[in-house]
Design a protein that fits this description.
Shape: globular
Largest sheet: 3 strands, antiparallel
Pfam family, one: DUF2835
Protein name: Topoisomerase II
InterPro entries: DUF2835
Order of helices and strands: EHEEEE
Radius of gyration: 12 Å
CATH class: Mainly Beta
Length: 74
């Protein structure tokens, strides 16, 4: 059974480079329902743009907590 968490992410391109270089491995965010969550920075590589990552995203995990997908939600 998959789990879904929705987070607002605002990272500049420069901030994301720190994750990309491996200086930081985990991203910490607060979900829209108030939970603090941490997830591997590499899951964001498909949603980064020229100006970074800005918006609300739904992240899905499987029952064992492994990443499945990330999608922008409005």
């Amino acid at each position: 059974m998959s789990q879904r968490i929705v987070v607002d992410i605002h990272l500049s391109a420069e901030e994301y480079l720190r994750y990309y270089r491996g200086e930081i491995k985990l991203v910490q965010a607060t979900s829209v329902d108030g939970r603090r969550v941490r997830f591997p920075a590499n899951v964001l590589q498909h949603v980064i743009g020229h100006d970074g990552i800005h918006g609300r995203y739904a992240i899905e995990f499987d029952g064992d907590g492994r990443f499945q997908s990330i999608k922008r939600v409005d």
